[in-house]
Design goal:
The complex is a heterodimer of chains A (222) and B (667).
Chain A (H helix, E strand, L loop, with lengths): L1 H10 L1 H12 L9 E7 L2 E9 L4 E3 L4 H10 L13 H22 L2 H31 L20 E5 L2 E7 L1 H23 L2 H4 L8 H9 L1
Antiparallel strand pairs in A: 1-2, 1-5, 2-3, 4-5
Helix pairs in contact in A: 2-4, 2-6, 4-5, 5-6
Chain B lengths: L1 H29 L17 H5 L9 E6 L6 E6 L4 E5 L21 E2 L2 E2 L9 E5 L2 E11 L4 E6 L4 E7 L4 E5 L9 E8 L1 E2 L10 H4 E10 L5 E10 L2 E7 L7 E7 L8 H4 L5 E8 H9 L4 E13 L4 E13 L8 E7 L2 E6 L5 E6 L5 E5 H9 L3 E5 L2 E4 L1 H4 E5 L6 E6 L4 E6 L4 E6 L5 E6 L4 E5 L12 E6 L15 E7 L6 E8 L6 E5 L29 E5 L2 E9 L2 E3 L2 E6 L3 E8 L8 E5 L7 E3 L4 E6 L5 E6 L12 E7 L8 E3 L8
Parallel strand pairs in B: 14-19, 37-40, 39-45
Antiparallel strand pairs in B: 1-2, 1-35, 2-3, 4-5, 6-7, 7-8, 8-9, 9-18, 10-11, 11-13, 12-13, 13-14, 15-16, 16-17, 17-20, 18-19, 21-22, 22-23, 23-26, 24-25, 27-28, 28-29, 29-30, 31-32, 32-33, 33-34, 36-37, 37-38, 39-46, 40-43, 41-42, 41-44, 44-45
The chains are: A alpha+beta (222), B mainly beta (667).
């Protein structure tokens, strides 16, 4: 009896992982996803922009204005967070994923965990590609009236890593929110993996009478 | 042969001897040497340079705030390098920063005598908490037109100036109490009380000496709490007690002779003058009990508001005065030899050092003995209701013949005291308690005050001593008849003082304060948040920039950001207009002020910090197109940061318009 109870308890592990994975995405609302820092001799501590799920901020309230002032010398257009639609719909996408993940956790089915994880991964990659497009746009769309012109030069910051742009060294890396969201998605894969590996398929679900063909497929494949 | 040789030798000897005498004569006539300076530059064993070397990009360990003396300002240096960082305008107008020229700071220099654009700033004093320097503010006295200023050390700007009424020269000031409850102000001149038209020869009869207590709130706001009416002595310097003696302030006096002419003789006759010991906690009780006179007195209180970026001047018309004869226990006189200058309380609060400037000795009083003498009523006599305590009953010890002309003493954290001797031009180190002289070091030349970081607080930070020298003569490259004053830095960490460095100073530093940099650095504001700007003529962004006319008064709401003015072209200004340029600097980054200057302005430039608004009045006198530009290098496009004002004749019908870039002129 006791052993049985413990086993039931253990069966909750994939579900718990999935709940953590879903809720983990909420850290995107607490921490920035990405950080871009510009270093130059006259900026000894660097100018750091933080890209959040819903806003673009910096290490001081004036950071964005200061970045825009720097950019205007070479004719880059100003970064105006209000004009970036992603900052409006990305929060909705993330909330949707959190809710979906929690529903899936309730059903506790490895196949659904995998589906969620793959979808989230694809969307993340699309997001990073979208970020790249924005960077490309800012770096290449230059005003013909720019006070300083550098033929052939682009001012696109790196996607990940560091890059020298004129007198600046630009650094671009995922930040706390982005990293935690990545870990969350990874946890969903773990939930799926633990689910199919450690427990026979008919013991996973709460409602054992409701096993789909997909689950069987996954099981046989592994 | 032999004899002949001898003769030749004799001849050689004679010539040789004559040559030597000639050389001696040459030296004797041309090259007199000063035994004090010959072969001794004041330096220095081998590796001193490294002790004052602050490598490029490194920070100094201490701030030093040196008074500007007759410049009226405060100079901010670093120690040990001696490098000058900033001159804070306090009592004197400063065209560089528009201080006293722009509309916002003019009220700071208002007094009951009207606008006073200069003063003689003497003694900087850092605010304290529990007797330790805390880095919030630095106070300084204006000696000529009696005032005290408070400088906010988060921005290094003057935040308030309060005028001291019933005073004639505010010298023994500001010298804070242990928790900056008060800063004090003792008059250096006896003056008629109240001021009136009387013969100068009626000094003893009509003149009085006033001590003033200025209260300071937690926000730094200064107000006159009360004044104490005393005989017309000259109140020279002061220090408040600490630890056990917290609650008391000690003021030195000279001219207890109450002379009023040929003072250098007549005011130096008494063997002993007094140190006035004021029990300010007792004063608070008398004030609370209503035991004071409220007398008419005109005095200005000028406060700068960091949100409106504007100072306002308020004129006050009365003050509370305590009369010692009606307030027993309020003031006692401690006889102290020979016109004492500095009065310095050791870090424990027990010893009160009187620096009798016309003697060779230092007289040290004991606070405990003073309390006992008061308890036993050991009075020598009484003057104007003030008991004079018996000298022998209060003196703790005498530092015998330590030097000539002791002026001022500070302390280290190891129980040692350091006194400047003006006449013998040296610093003397002595032991508190045993009164023995431990070491002496020459100063170049004629040291006035000296300073040890925290050296007049409960917790001296030691390590360095700065001597402030009045005379430099041959120490620096000459600059005509007027030479710089000089600071000298000594290492006092060892048993022997070691001279490390000379550096020139602004004006005439009468005193200085030092504080470890980490008490100030974390307080620094990098700019003013634009959203907190409450200036009535601010422009919150370029869209808010505009020009408005009210009769012949024109208000230009202008903004600056790298690197343009908005608007940068203005038309419709007429000869005879009063044009106010209200310039808001929209920058929100550290170290990006913009300047504003316009041709023919009869005042100065503006130097506007990020998030700040400042106003320059300009009155065009002839028609034309007048340029204006940014004076403070702001970016690679700084030289393009400029604009024009078109000035038309009086009565012209050119409409008021303004623009930036290719936009249509807005009307």
């Amino acid at each position: 009896m006791l052993f049985q109870k413990e086993q039931n308890h253990m069966k909750q592990l994939p579900r718990i992982l999935m709940i953590i994975a879903s809720l983990g995405l909420l850290t995107l609302f607490l921490f920035p996803m990405w950080r871009i820092t510009l270093y130059a001799p006259q900026y000894p501590t660097g100018v750091t922009m933080y890209i959040h799920i819903n806003k673009i901020g910096g290490d001081s309230p004036g950071t964005l204005q200061n970045v825009n002032i720097l950019n205007h010398y070479v004719g880059m257009k100003p970064i105006i967070p209000e004009a970036i639609p992603e900052l409006k719909f990305l929060p909705i996408v993330v909330i949707t994923f959190v809710v979906l993940g929690l529903i899936i956790a309730f059903f506790n089915r490895p196949k659904l965990f995998l589906t969620w994880a793959i979808l989230a991964s694809v969307l993340s990659l699309l997001g990073i590609y979208d970020f790249y497009l924005w960077e490309y746009d800012y770096g290449h769309t230059l005003s013909p009236d720019a006070p300083m012109k550098f033929p052939g030069a682009s001012f696109q910051p790196p996607l990940i890593g560091t890059k020298v742009i004129l007198n600046f060294v630009a650094e671009s890396f995922p930040h706390t929110g982005g990293i935690l969201a990545g870990i969350s998605i990874f946890l969903a894969y773990v939930a799926w993996f633990v689910g199919i590996k450690k427990y026979p398929k008919n013991e996973i679900s709460n409602s054992s009478d409701n096993i789909s063909a997909g689950d069987k497929l996954v099981h046989t494949n592994s | 042969m032999k004899k002949f040789e001898l003769n030749i030798n004799q001849a050689h000897f004679g010539l040789f001897a004559m040559a030597i005498i000639g050389v001696l004569l040459l030296f004797g006539c041309g090259n007199q040497t000063n035994p004090y300076t010959s072969g001794d530059s004041g330096a220095l064993s081998s590796d001193v340079a490294s002790k004052v070397y602050v490598a490029p990009g490194e920070h100094d360990e201490f701030y030093a705030f040196m008074s500007g003396g007759f410049s009226g300002q405060i100079a901010v240096h670093g120690l040990p390098s001696g490098r000058l960082f900033k001159v804070i305008p306090v009592f004197s107008v400063d065209g560089e920063k528009g201080y006293g020229f722009n509309e916002e700071t003019k009220p700071l220099l208002e007094t009951s005598h009207g606008f006073v654009p200069w003063d003689d700033s003497h003694h900087p004093e850092l605010s304290q908490t529990n007797g330790e320097t805390d880095g919030r503010w630095i106070f300084i006295n204006g000696n000529n037109t009696p005032r005290i200023a408070r400088v906010d050390l988060s921005v290094f700007e003057t935040a308030q100036i309060i005028e001291i009424p019933n005073s004639g020269g505010n010298h023994s000031s500001p010298f804070t109490t242990e928790n900056t409850e008060y800063v004090v102000a003792g008059t250096r001149f006896g003056v008629p009380y109240p001021q009136k038209d009387v013969p100068i020869s009626s000094y003893a009869e009509n003149f009085k000496g006033m001590l003033t207590y200025v209260s300071v709130t937690d926000e730094g706001y200064m107000d006159i709490a009360f004044q104490i009416l005393l005989p017309a002595y000259d109140y020279d310097l002061a220090h408040s007690g600490k630890g056990n003696s917290h609650g008391w302030t000690f003021f030195t006096t000279y001219n207890t002779e109450e002379a009023s002419t040929l003072m250098e003789v007549t005011a130096s006759q008494n063997d002993k003058d007094y140190i006035a010991a004021v029990n300010w906690k007792k004063a608070e009780e008398y004030i609370k009990a209503g035991n004071f006179q409220e007398v008419p007195a005109k005095w200005a209180n000028n406060v700068y508001d960091e949100h409106t970026h504007m100072a306002t001047s308020t004129m006050n018309d009365k003050v509370k005065v305590l009369i010692p004869s009606e307030c027993p226990g309020l003031v006692y006189f401690l006889p102290t030899p020979k016109s004492p200058h500095g009065v310095d309380v050791d870090p424990t609060g027990e010893y009160i050092v009187g620096n009798g400037k016309l003697s060779a000795d230092l007289t040290v009083h004991s606070f405990t003995k003073m309390l006992k003498a008061i308890e036993n009523k050991s009075y020598e006599t009484e003057v104007a209701g003030v008991p004079v305590l018996k000298f022998d009953e209060v003196v703790a010890g005498v530092v015998q013949e330590a030097g000539l002309g002791p002026l001022h003493t500070e302390f280290d954290a190891k129980g040692n005291a350091y006194t400047s001797f003006f006449i013998s031009s040296e610093v003397v180190k002595w032991k508190v308690g045993s009164w023995e002289v431990l070491d002496r070091a020459p100063s170049y030349y004629s040291i006035g005050h000296l300073m040890i970081p925290g050296g007049d607080s409960k917790k001296p930070q030691g390590k360095y001593l700065v001597a402030m020298n009045k005379i430099t003569k041959d120490r620096y490259l000459p600059t005509g008849p007027e030479l710089c004053h000089s600071a000298q830095l000594y290492d006092i960490s060892g048993d022997k003082m070691q001279l490390l460095l000379d550096f020139p100073t602004m004006g005439e530093p009468h005193y200085a304060q030092g504080i470890s940099a980490d008490r100030i650095k974390p307080r620094q504001k990098k700019f003013y948040p634009i959203e907190e700007n409450k200036h009535p003529f601010r422009a919150m962004g370029e869209k808010d920039s505009r020009v408005e006319r009210e009769g012949n008064v024109v208000h230009v709401y202008m903004t600056t950001i790298r690197s343009h003015f908005a608007p940068d072209n203005i038309e419709g200004i007429k000869v005879g207009d009063k044009v106010y340029f209200h310039v808001t600097n929209l920058e929100q980054d550290w170290d990006v002020p913009h300047g504003f200057s316009i041709m023919g302005a009869n005042n100065a430039e503006l130097l506007i910090m990020g998030g700040q608004t400042e106003t320059l009045l300009w009155e065009p006198k002839s028609e034309g197109v007048i340029p204006f530009y940014c004076t403070d290098f702001c970016s690679a496009l700084h030289q393009e940061m400029q604009g024009y004002v078109r000035v038309s004749p009086r009565g012209s019908n050119i409409a008021l318009s303004w623009s930036l870039g290719e936009d249509e002129a807005v009307q």
